[in-house]
Amino acid sequence: MTAAAEGPPTLGIIRARRNALLLSEPVQGLALISPTFLYALVLLVLPILVVVAHSFWTQNYLTIDRTFTLENYRAALTEPIYRDLLWRSLYISMMVSFFTVVLAYPIAYFISFHGGRHKSLWLFLITIPFWTSYLLRVMSWKVILGYNGVLNSSLLGLGIIDEPSTALLYNSSAVIITLTHAWAAFAILPIFVSLEKIDRTLIEAAKDLGDGPIRSFLRVTLPLSAPGVISAALIVMIPTVGDYVTPKLVGGKDGVMIANAIQAQFGKASNWPLGAALSVTTMLIVTLMAGATVVIIRTAQRLVR
Asked: What CATH topology corresponds to 56-304?
């Protein structure tokens, strides 16, 4: 008898097929990730879409003209003030990422290879300074970097010098120093995790084959810890581009970053479309920078090997 002659499937067969579908791994996987996906969609994707939509509109005093325009992007990319702030922000971010990784790697290496049974204690001690308020740490650096200014002001009052100096404060260098300290722990931890995953027998094998400490580090340890270095660089670079508190407190006029201009557009300037265009432009450029950083580190990793 053919399948057509058998007639429609019974109710029991339909229920069995439905249950089998609901119990299948793809459906269970979708059911598992759906709450997280919806959460990310509502709290992450939708706000970005709103910002992108605003970037194509125009601010008319207290109202927003929703006519499509690229004028905000033209201003963001061509006006010297915004272009200079953007390049300064990218420069500061890259310098902070570089110095943070360079300073964090030896610390993570020491804890991983020489920490012994006290590794947890070392990690605990590293995180202690970050229990305090971020603003308090920034203000502490403001006092430290401004010390020579205070000293020179005192000498000015005594008539020893003609004018005070704050060479270490209110410039890009002050922002780089402060942000490097602020993000140090966030670079140490991923590098430490990456170093912990390295099979120590590979290092011993390199030494048995005649590699010295430096050569075995460059050929084995450093390439295998590259994922941690990449993670640390990205973790530091991406947020520092959008930092506006630190430049405001220790940067002065010479240390202002693009985030300060964006904050001004959403605040006193009250030009949300321009602020949105600056935000989107910064996000796109940072995305390209992050991709370029990964490619450069991966290329260097292959060359070392």
From this structure: MetI-like fold (1.10.3720)
What's the mean pLDDT in 76-94? 92
The span from the CA of 220 to the CA of 102, in Å, is 18
Please report, in angstroms and rounded to a whole number, the separation of the first and last CA atoms in the chain: 68
Instruction: Tell me, yes or no, if the pTM score tops 0.90.
Output: no
- Per the rule left: phi > 0, alpha: psi between -120 and 50, beta: everything else, 221 is alpha
Average pLDDT of the residues in 190-205: 91
Helices 272-304 and 226-241, interaxial angle, to 10°? Answer: 160
DSSP 287: H
**Which residue intervals of the chain bear CATH 1.10.3720.10?**
56-304
For residue 45, pLDDT over 50 is answered with yes
Mean pLDDT of the chain: 83
Q: How far apart are CA 183 and CA 179, in angstroms?
A: 6
Q: Which residue has the higher pLDDT, 197 or 28?
A: 197
**Residues whose CB falls within 8 Å of the CB of residue 223, separated by 6 or more in sequence, listed in order:** 301, 304, 305
Cβ contacts of 155 within 8 Å, gap of 6 or more: 161, 164
Q: Which structure tokens are listed for 141?
A: 């650096």
